[in-house]
Amino acid sequence: MKSAIFDLANPDSLEQAVSALSQSLSMGKVLAGGQSLGPMMNMRLAQPELLVNATVLKALRHTEETAQAVILGAAITHAEIEDGRVPDPTGGLMQKVASGIAYRAVRNRGTLGGSLAHADPAADWINLMPLLNATMRVVGPTGTRDIEAAQWMIGTFTSALDDNEILIDVSIPKLSRQACRSYYKINRKPGEFSEATAGFLVDPLRDICRAVIGATDGPPLSLENEDAKALITELRSGRIGVLADHALLRAGIEKDTHSYQLHAVAMQRAVAMLDSEKGKMI
User: Are residues 67 and 93 in the same domain?
Assistant: First the structure.
């Protein structure tokens, strides 16, 4: 199939892009990499009347590094992160995650912001950003606002973006040299979306301990501080105990299901990676 008829806007600025979206009466979509939106339009699962081309906006291609964080423009591609062409505040974790997204042809065009705005629960950035405590900056008719990663995904394919807002960039806090972190996903073969995802971050210098369980039917589950520490301790015993069981249930995963078993394995392997030299990449 081919997509339904649509108009294409090539704005010269963010202001023009926001104006075009506002005038489309909720029937417009922002086109970033197009690696998810394009196939959905061809299958008529999405039928926007207007596409606003964000790839032409230089304001979405910037990078900035401060003492505390790295800011990546929403139109930065997966391949640019994978190849180290932009700063990585995680000391290699983002590069590793980017290298596992789909295939190289997709990574060449797919963007960080496009993936986050699409809000597929099985995608990588939607699960990694809460682990890193990132902040998304968006712009709309009334100006800019910041959205924390933990509040970004509202539901499956639904983000906190309003219909007339555009994601500008993502601010990712830097980790210290003592940070230890892991990210593990289970998929049947390389290039496929994840069936189960788990990640852990321990940074003693910054007093951070965090866990994320993703690739569920909704937003990823984030655990902070003492809850995350207790979960790591339990998983180090090599078993799925009360805390891990409770976390999986909170994430919306039913017990004694195939998904439950996959997520349990993902958590165990993520903790093993955390404790190995592979998990200490800084």
Answer: yes
